[in-house]
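Run folding on both entries below.
>entry_1
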Amino acid sequence: MTTVFRYLAMAGALAVALDSSAALAQTGLDSAKVPPVPTDIQVPAGNTLFLKGRAQGTQSYICLPATSGFDWKFVAPQATLFFDLKLGSIDFHQQIITHFLSPNPDEASTPRATWQGSIDTSAVWAKAVVISSDPAFVAPGAIPWLRLEAVGTERGPNGGDLLAHTTFVQRLNTAGGIAPVAGCSSVGNVGATALVPYTADYFFYKATKTQ
């Protein structure tokens, strides 16, 4: 029984800590460590890391006719981002962001990769500006590392701004997620879909404050 009450107390403390986007960002940043990256994946000067999330989800593909035969075409990501928090002897694996494809209101509803805060529902839409499959960094069989530039942001309905100031996003430390090697070789396969599991670390940046 003591363990149960202790767990509930810890959970309550976590809920209070995550009640503001500033607290969440600081918690996510405390555990963030950007790995070495290819030069072109680096975020330009004038931007500061403010949040990291570990993604678990899928990359979806559809089989379509191609220039020569048939091929899997990427459709969209679907993932949940977490951060890990240790309170005493209890480890929390807390959801912080949902990642998916959605229309960007700042680009006349152009479909873009989207990250939406799980607590304040603020959001950022971004497009990939650098794609790297450099084998010195990207693991075999893993989707590429990316640097993405924000092309739209939105506060939550109550003014939440966890992701509303995002300027760049990096997708690093990827595993899995590449298109299948089979199942898309004939007319009969057209329209087939594949949901390929993947993990990755996402790093979020905002403009550096000037004095």
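>entry_2
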Amino acid sequence: MENTALAAAYLKEMEAEYASTKKCLERIPETVYKFKPHPKSMEMGYLTLLVAEIPMWITHMVEYGEIDFINFKHFELSTSQALLEHFEENFKGSQKVLQNATNESLDQQFSLKNNGQLLFSQPKLDGISSTINHWVHHRGQLTVYMRLNDISVPSIYGPSADDKTY
């Protein structure tokens, strides 16, 4: 069975987003994990964890075909270094599943559930695309939190006000 061209393209897209994501994550100190810009906003620690864990969603999606919130365990926030190591592990896992994905495997359904109740289902290939978009969206949100905490925002798609180099 042949690796799908779309899986290869998604892998290339994730690899392009990797460096910018890592630059953001490595700048977040544990001291700001409780920060919330608004009472309805999530805490910065949870947002940072989300950005570090979204690549793992792709691994679960492709390998298991399901995520159920009832038994999906989040990493426990502790140190920035531990979070970076968790991100690296999650990213390498997503690389591996995309490198080994076949057209046949990605045509299968992915289901998102909450305590066994189906929230939605879609082909894995569609789920990968929306998950990458979700990842980039939350990284952008994280850069706003960074700015609000006077944390230097790295260059992502071009120079930032803090980092004028590539």
